[in-house]
Amino acid sequence: MRIIFMGFRSFLEHKRGVENVIEFQSKALAFEKIYYIHFGKNNRAYKHNNYICISLSPLSLRTFFIINRLLKRIKDKSTLLHSHNPLLTFLYKGKTDFLTVHDGLYYLAKSKRENRFKLILLKHIEKRIYNKTTYVHFISHFSKKMSLFKNESKYVIIPNTSIYETYVEKKPASKKTDKNKIHVFCVRSIEERARFDLMLEIADKLKDNFIFDIAGKGPLLDHYRDQVNKRNLRNVSFHGYVNDEQLFNFYRNADIILTLAEYGEGFGLPIIEGYLFNRPVIASNRCAIPEVIISKEDLVENDMDNIVDKLKKFNFSKNIDYREYYDQHFSNEIILNKFRNLYLTVVK
């Protein structure tokens, strides 16, 4: 049996988020061949580990013909098609077996206050791709609720897991360098919805006792680095993209993980990764985060005073095994079994 995944970026680039989810899903069954189709700088095919990767040049009128010609050549009746890319799903004339929805197109466009034409177009695309898909996979109840999906039988909700599980000890020892400061770690795409404007205000209020390390790239990375310099915030560092080993060290060094969101947070992967490293997490009471967080006591409103107060008064001596919570709800074994059963449903 073979499977074709349709995603966004190359595995050879900085791999996070969707690419990691696809890598995990590909382990659900012993596939004879695994194809990965994504957008890239040009049209080319290449091999990466056990994946046959196919890069498509940026979206154009030719993409419709290219994707249909390509899938006609590599897809047969025994090949599963699992898409994470709504545009490629829309352009493909045939049926898609599985579509993973992280956040609905129309919901995201409304949240970003896009123009009316784009809203109408994305609404049409989103409705169309659901009708062309056998099973729609949502990563949370929130992502389903905010979608335009109406079929109450052909869907499944399976949360994310972490591909870093095999790299982590049961209870990793902290390697904190400054024992006199509380280390706060955040790993996010640096964009408006992640509320880094609010985080800088919080860091300014807590500059005497807290250090904020922020990992991730995004369109506003340079803007917020500039803001850190203008405000002379010596306790804040935007590290940009970090490799896996650097990421592990940040998690191990952290006293607490902070995840802020305004919209567009269909799951909250940094939350469960914090638990994987047995670290407490404070996160916004928004989107899918309440579904993932260990306790409502660890939720905050997007208000500076509320978050500052929560950080100052957080009880770090609470005897909570966050890793155990991860193992019981989001472990590789649990999530992999769910995808295995999902794939076999269509195969049968």
Descriptive overview:
By secondary structure, this protein is an alpha/beta fold. It has helices spanning 18-25, 62-74, 86-91, 105-111, 116-131, 141-145, 196-205, 221-231, 244-253, 269-276, 289-292, 304-313, 322-329, 332-347, and strands at residues 2-6, 33-39, 44-48, 51-56, 79-83, 96-101, 133-138, 155-157, 182-187, 210-215, 236-238, 256-259, 281-284, 299-300. The strands form 2 sheets. It has an 8-stranded mixed beta sheet, with helices on both faces. A 6-stranded parallel beta sheet has the order 11-10-9-12-13-14, with helices on both faces. The radius of gyration is 21 Å and the shape is globular.
The residue ranges in which pLDDT falls below 50 over 5 or more consecutive positions are: none
The description of the largest β-sheet is: 8 strands, mixed
Outline: globular
Mean pLDDT: 94
Task: Specify the helix fraction band.
Answer: 25-40%
Strand order of the largest sheet: 3-4-2-1-5-6-7-8
Hey, roughly how much beta strand do the residues contain?
Answer: 15-25%
Strand-pairing-aware structural class: alpha/beta
Number of continuous helical runs: 14
Q: Topology as H/E string?
A: EHEEEHEHEHHEHEEHEHEHEHEHEHHH
Rg from alpha-carbon coordinates = 21 Å
Number of strands: 14
Distance between the termini: 12 Å
